[in-house]
Amino acid sequence: MHRGLEQSLPHSLLDDPQLGKQVALNLKRNRAQDATEAMEAAVAAYRFEDCQHSAWNPEQYALLWGTALWHESSPSQRRLLNQLYWVAYYSQIMSAEIATIFLNQVSAAGLYAVEDFRPICDSLDLETRQERAHIHAFKTIGEDVEHRLFGRRIFTYPMRHPMTETMVFADTNGLRTWWKGIQLRAFTAMAGNPFLGSQYLLIRGLRTLNGKIVQHKLSQYYEHHPDQANAPIPAAISWYHFSDESFHFHTSRLVGVEVPRVLPKPTAFERWVVNQGVAGCQRDHYHFSSAVNGIFWYDPALYRPIYQVLRSPAFGLDHGGAMQMLHRSFCEDSEGVQAAAQTHREAVASYRLFVDSISWLSAGNREMRHMAGNNTHRYLRTNRQAYARFKGQAAALERTHNLLQTARA
Ligand SMILES: [Fe+2]
Ligand SMILES: [Fe+2]
Q1: Whole-angstrom Cα distance, residue 81 to residue 77?
Q2: Which residues share a beta bridge with 115?
Q3: Coil, strand, or helix at residue 67?
Q4: pLDDT tens digits, 18-57
Q5: Can you give the pLDDT at residue 9?
Q6: Dihedral sign, CA of 336, 338, 343, 344?
Q7: Centre of ligand 1 from the C-alpha of residue 270, in Å
Q8: pLDDT (0 to 100) of residue 173
Q9: Shortest CA distance to 331 belongs to which of 389, 371, 260, 277?
Q10: In b/e form, how buried is each residue of 372-407, taking b as 16+ CB within 10 angstroms?
């Protein structure tokens, strides 16, 4: 902006030259290391036959790792649980990224109202384009695996609207989903507000922080693979994805935590809106999942899909055997339950650190009180109660399963 001329706001990104430089550098590096093309090439070269005999993630990143199912699985079944973790994990990431694409644009629209914010908007544009490539990769491979192994969807879903409930397997009902949609629409109606635009990135940073930790571990499998040229393509995709996402996370931190310094102080209403957003994140991340350690899914919502996996030829359990295995894996304490609870505790600690300096958050939000209220005792109690209800519907579940099998035969 030209200091000698009248401006709509007294603020500019250049009021903080160091911050301006950090934003420009993050954009420059993301452009230079953009993994889009490598990822697109990897998806194009992907063939299930080439990678079906290897693991795609480090060993403990397998569906229901450390539970009764995992302990009693054969080596080939464990490999399958490892591959299904990839499918399930990224089907959640994909859902969050569909919403991100939309909200990046809303946020950029607000921030562009401030002088010299173009580098931030350009960063968000680049990230949006990268997310589309990420979604394409996860969707192509996830759907291919499910089609081959089950002939139906288990964790994937058809392309969805950005206002859909982002948690794929949530503790929700029609009313709650409707209310979340209203809240999201209300947020987007505030497009054009620079402070809220920056705070969307604070919430994005918070919501992706645990993902950053888990995805770093997933990316290590390819990074340390002894023969990268022949490593399974899904593992390479985890690595490319983490490379892009580390820039996205840096953008979230710069814009959500640092940029407010150069913006006018938030009003009481703006502070209220941000607090609502962080409280929503705490609610969404309250649960933890032993099925997919690292995702905050509500495990009772997974009883049905896991039942389908157990009844599939790869596991070949009958109805009674599948029901028993569900109970033993989800309702009994195990290494897997403990590991998922540990991931949740680490998430709470890292979220607290991330928002530590944000003075406009309430104490309950800064300390993540709601999210920190979950523990293995509550988790197991919730799962057992839900299992009792699930068992009540088991006859209908078995009938549907048999009907589908007959239709396919
Ligand atoms: Fe992504
Ligand atoms: Fe991202």
Answers
A1: 6
A2: 12
A3: coil
A4: 999 999 999 999 999 999 999 999 999 999 999 999 999 9
A5: 67
A6: positive
A7: 28
A8: 77
A9: 389
A10: bebebeebbebbeebbeebeeebeebbeebeeeeee
Kindly provide the b/e burial profile for residues 93-127, where b requires at least 16 CB atoms within 10 angstroms of the residue's own CB: bbbbbbbbbebbbbbbbbbbebbebebbbbbbebb
Distance 244 CA to ligand 1 centre (A): 7
Over residues 270-281, the pLDDT tens digits come to: 999 999 999 999
Which residues are registered as beta bridge partners of 12? 115
Residue 171's SS3 state is: coil
Q: Which residues surround ligand 2, an ion (CB under 5 A)?
A: 245, 248
d(CA 263, CA 283): 29
Cα distances from 100 to residues 104, 171, 232, 375, in angstroms, run: 6, 21, 28, 29
Q: Which residue has the tokens 């949740």?
A: 344
* Interval between CA 256 and ligand 1 midpoint (Å): 18
User: Which residues are CB-neighbours of 113 under 8 A, at least 6 positions away?
Assistant: 8, 9, 192, 194
Specify the 3-state DSSP secondary structure of 329.
Answer: helix
pLDDT beyond 80 at 13: no
Query: Are the C-beta atoms of residues 91 and 142 closer than 8 Å to each other?
Result: yes
Mean pLDDT score of the chain:
92
Q: How many A from CA of 259 to the centre of ligand 1?
A: 23
Question: What's the CA gap between 393 and 196, in Å, rounded?
Answer: 45
Residue 214 is which amino acid? V
Gap from CA of 175 to ligand 2 centroid (Å):
29
- Which ligand neighbours the alpha carbon of 238 most closely? 1
* pLDDT given at position 98: 93
CA of 127 to the centre of ligand 2 (A): 6
Q: How far is CA 354 from the centre of its chain?
A: 17
Inform me whether the pLDDT recorded for 389 exceeds 80.
Answer: yes
Question: How many angstroms does the Cα of residue 134 sit away from the middle of ligand 1?
Answer: 5
Cα of 249 to ligand 2 centre, how many Å? 7
Query: Tokens 């996860």, residue?
Result: 138
Ligand 2 center–CA 389 separation, angstroms: 37
CA dihedral sign, ordered 75, 78, 84, 86: negative
**Residues in the chain, total:** 409
